[in-house]
Amino acid sequence: MSDVVIDCEGLHKRFGSLVAVRDVTLTIRRGELFGVLGPNGSGKTTLLRMLCGLLEPTSGTAFVLGRDVRDSAEWIRERVGYMSQRFGLYEDLTVRENLEFYAQVYGLTGARREERIAAMVAMAGLEARTDQLAGTLSGGWKQRLALGCAIVHDPALLLLDEPTAGVDPGSRRRFWSIIDELVATTSTTVLVTTHYMDEAERFARVAFISFGDLIAVDAPERVVAAHPGARDLEDVFVMLQAEAT
Amino acid sequence: MKPSRVLAIARKEVRQLRRDPPTIGMLLGVPIIQLLLFGYAIRTDVENLPLAVHDAARTEASRELAARLEATGSFVRVADASGHEQMHDWLREGRVRAGLVIPSDYARRLARGEPASAQLLIDAADPLASQSAIAAAGAVAMAGAGGGAGIGEGLGAGTGAGPGAGTGVAAGTGSGIDLRVRPLYNPGLRAPVYIVPGIIGVLISITMMLITALALVRERERGTLEQLIVTPITRGELMVGKVAPYILFGYVQITAVLLLGHLVFDVPVRGSLPLFYAISFAFVVANLGLGLFISTLARNQQQAMMLGYFFLLPNILLSGFMFPREAMPELAQWLGLLLPLTYYLDVLRGIILRDAGLASLWQETGVLIGFSVLLLVFSALRFRKSLE
Predict the structure, then answer these.
(1) What is the distance in angstroms between the Cα of B237 and the nearest Cα belonging to chain A?
(2) Measuring CA to CA, which residue among B218, B267, B246, B257 is closest to residue B29?
(3) Dist CA A189 CA A7 (whole Å)
(4) B96 close contact with A: CB closer than 8 A
(5) Distance between alpha carbon B376 and the CA centroid of its chain, in Å?
(6) What CA–CA distance (Å, rounded) separates A43 from A58?
(7) Residues of B in contact with A133 (CB under 8 A)
(8) Is the pTM of this model over 0.80?
(9) Which of B9, B19, B232 comes nearest A106 by C-beta?
(10) Tell me, what's the ipTM?
């Protein structure tokens, strides 16, 4: 059991009459790079928010790192990193101040804090810009700084909500190579949502989410193979969309 | 609640504030500007109204009357008129705002013990200004030596229909009317003494309510609030960390206004400062609660601003800050009772001007504490929900 990082069963979230996430059952193991694919408004963000205890499930259970999200939200948050599409940076603070702030909030102190901040600066390639205001950075830099803020406390699970939206192709490639290295060297489990199908080829497993339903959970090539007539994930995506509507 | 996380938030807040000169300007500049504006501009007591004198008597008694009028401080003698007509011309042109006409028989009648009269013409276009001048003249007339009397006549200059006779302020004639008014606490009836303590209340309302609301809405607007609530930080830590710097700022403002008011406008501090600072905390927290409440209603900073002003306006108009509550219609008086500032003003003026103690202010203090607890709990619950 200690190898299971995310374990949901019948996870359900309703907002009034709208079902945002329907009966999701999902197991993700340590060190896995897992992609949740789906169009905007399909329930991706709601699923992520339930996993980090931001939203309470309407029904069903979700265990993260072996604990129930319902009663261990704070414990879980100390061990989970979350990066939203909007990056969540303080634009009027410098690169260093942003990292410092999140390191403090995550309870890092002393030499360990300095060490982690330096590591994040190096990872993002921001050595020459530590005193620059975050608001003046370009998209790719901002994205890597946001990643640094989300993993400064060395989380066991990293949740990325559309991390590459609005970032240029070069920066996207650089971002994914950082993530690959993170998974390879630290066995961090990463759960990503995206609607860029070309990125999804690199994930160990993917799941499609459509109108709150999680469908076709498998390795990308097997998902493609299971859908006759589909050449790649993009075809599958379009086919599933057509089926659902 | 972990102090290190509260501190992290507070430190971040101060850093952000430092990079935001307009807001710092608002926090530091507004108290000073308000103090000077209200202190200097809003005064209902009039000084140095330009006065022309036509002394047809040219006696010692008549000169004395003019001198006494000038000695009230309400008038300053700028010219001598040759006669009635010139006096009216000058008034119409606005060259002078008041004119004293002493008839040639003034001294003679005075000497004979007959009612002596002189005429004071006052431009009453600005009723507020003229009122206090008329009152000052009335005092001179009533205390008139040997039963001397002055009669004031107001000139309505508002319609432009020419000078029409207004109300006359008659004073006692030969009889021994000797009415001495002795105003307590503000013997000069000076507006700053009344206004300056009130400014403290209005300032704290603005700072605590608006700045708190803005600081929270800004986080929501920029998406950093979402990022913050996925960290282990608790809602309590977040709220305390965010508002603590502004509470300190509030106390800096209180101190600055008190000090400036004392140095520039001679506003006394008669009561206990520690008591005043202690009761102020309840008022600070009440407004903080309002700021939190606004942050749960507003989707962006503009909305927060508008809502802030929506809450601020009744505070200024109905609390008794500028206009006496006793003069308001009953409904307005009742509405005023719903505002924390109304009670805080009683505390402020009580302690600062009258040296009132807790014994006479416990009711106001109790209401303020009630307000602060209610507002904070209600808003904190709403704030909690709004995060979800």
Answers:
(1) 10
(2) B257
(3) 13
(4) no
(5) 28
(6) 14
(7) 19
(8) no
(9) B232
(10) 0.85
